[in-house]
Specification:
The structure holds two protein chains of two kinds.
Chain A: E1 5-21, E2 24-39, E3 43-48, H1 54-62, E4 69-77, E5 80-81, H2 84-90, E6 95-98, H3 111-116, H4 124-137, H5 154-166, E7 172-176, H6 184-199, E8 203-208, H7 211-217, E9 220-225, E10 228-234, H8 239-242, H9 248-255, H10 290-294, E11 300-302, E12 305-307
Parallel strand pairs in A: 3-8, 3-9, 6-7, 7-8
Antiparallel strand pairs in A: 1-2, 1-4, 4-5, 9-10, 10-12, 11-12
Chain B: E1 2-10, E2 19-27, E3 31-35, H1 42-49, E4 57-64, E5 67-73, E6 84-87, H2 101-105, H3 113-118, H4 135-146, E7 153-157, H5 165-182, E8 185-189, H6 193-199, E9 202-205
Parallel strand pairs in B: 3-8, 3-9, 6-7, 7-8
Antiparallel strand pairs in B: 1-2, 1-4, 4-5
Classes of the chains: A alpha/beta, B alpha/beta.
Amino acid sequence: MKREPILKIENLELSFSQYIQGLKKRELTVITNLDLELAEGEILAVVGSSGSGKSLLAHAILGILPYNARTRGKILYKGKVLSQREKERLRGQEIVLVPQSVNYLDPLLQVEQQIGISLQNKTKEQKEKMNNEILHRYGLDLAVKQYYPFQLSGGMARKVLLATALTSSAKVIIADEPTPGLDDESLGEVLKDFRNLSDSGKAILMITHDIQAALKIADKIAIFYAGATLELAAGIDFAHGGQGLRHPYTKALCRALPGEDFEAIEGRQPLPSELPQGCLFSDRCQLCTEECTRQRPDYRMIRGGKARCIHAT
Amino acid sequence: MRLRAHNITYGYAKGRKILENVNFTVEEGEVVGLTAPSGYGKSTLAKILAGFIKPEQGEVFLEKPEKAESGYKREPFSMGYNPVQLIFQHPEKAINPKWKMRKVISEVGMPSAQMLKAAGIKEEWLERWPAELSGGELQRFCVLRALNEQTRFLIADEMTTMLDAITQAQIWNLVLTYASEHRMGVVVISHEKILVDRLCTKVVDLTQM
């Protein structure tokens, strides 16, 4: 069954112009080839290491990139290309963000008011009730309502950020690293909430580096590396040591999990200023041939998923 | 060596104690996991063990197990090299943004080329500013500068939480190899149960204390 995607990203490219010396400028490309599709009632996890451009993706969708950023490619919402003005109208209403950093909480708002932001057109009693409900669900004491952000621990602040977004009535939820710092019990609670929300028709884009969490709930997983989507896989592909996976990077990632071999390959993700001309993973890949170093491989369909590798089968 | 916290009590707000009469011990060469839900004072205990917070009650000792009288009480905020090194979740907050990486890493003496290689640090990174490296790369520097001969205990407070699986495995392999070669004790604070089970010889649950 093919559902029409509510959010679609086609060949997005993102670059920053930087002053390097005096008035000399350079263009630094941080996202090179990004393709995503997100349907209603679906959870898509975007998994990638830090510095791969995951958060920038969220910021690009919401139109909150800094002034020196330039994007090419298309972001479509309900089949229409999103303009900056459209993004500004939709954000907070139909598309909400669960921000990555705890620093996004307003330092001068108590928790109660903070969550209240997304409950603006509710009565005072309704607000109070929903506030209490969500705090209770995440195992937070009701006294927390009166706390200011500096009084919260990392995990508590994370829960408040989530509560703020999860009580809103948006259609698309973009969660940027929603899980670090959460204990097992709350993590389970949060993931269950995401699943329920998506089953009720919302589309959720979960940006994370935590594959374990992604595997628990995501319908599809997009693997991100050095600013490009390298693979689109289903959760089941990761089972049995990642036998169903397609791209060599994803396979290496799977082997490095503490629940698997905990074995690391050498090297690191290239920085935006040192991207190779060919395949982005070529310098760490065992399958690398001369052809790989010449040009970037296309994103092609393989066994119901996608991979950007000429050797993938 | 043994790191021992005795009857620690600490609270941030009046009347609300996060830690109450907590006892905690790590032997040399041991890898101990410390788990609890958020807000139970894991990071607070880590800071007390490293002497960055003075507990309201209780003391932290560094001692030789075979002769307890040889031990000494570690006063918080003591001068000199701290044998209990703490590594935080966010490396960018633990590095001076206005120092180049060469200065950051050589603050306690330049590590050998062999150690740099083991940590996966490239020579050219040393000439960069912290803002020009990613979180995973900065965390390697934070770990490596703590792996000094004088470090007897390393406390990893969500050390690899922000990193991808491959970088996480790289960094932990480095730390565990070093710890077993130098009989260094390690405290692992993490929410990730699979990781704690994988790394630790013993796991302490702070809610059970």
